[in-house]
Write the structure tokens for this entry.
Amino acid sequence: MITVRGCAFPTHLLYDVKNHVWYERLGDGSFRVGMDAVAVALAGDILAFTPRRVGRQVESGKACAVVESGKWVGPARIAFDGVVQAVNDAMIDNPSLANDDPYGKGYMLIARAADDAPVAGLVSGNELADAYEAWMAGADFAGCGAGD
């Protein structure tokens, strides 16, 4: 686990720092997708979650879901072209799962990438802390839990 300004980032995941989304490569070549700790901290209490339906195409940089909180309504953007294979029904029924367990029960969906190189531009490992620290500094983001 890497922690940056109080925000936790499991090291086995890949991250889209700009869009605050994490990706977990699954054994069948698909990816579990969720909001990272920064997204959850920025959003506050998640009130609604509406993913793209199973079988729908998703485009790189476009919404794979819409997330609504008391502070914000907007898209969760996916990092690759592909198709939605499954959605987290528990998250639809109880959106606060993202607040309670963003890297576990609060994942958004599972998607299969259209090509073999969907992870271009995602960071992990040693690059992770530097990338998030740079984003936080540029966005004047104090950190997770800083505004509570």
Notes: Residues 126-139 form the longest helix (14 residues).
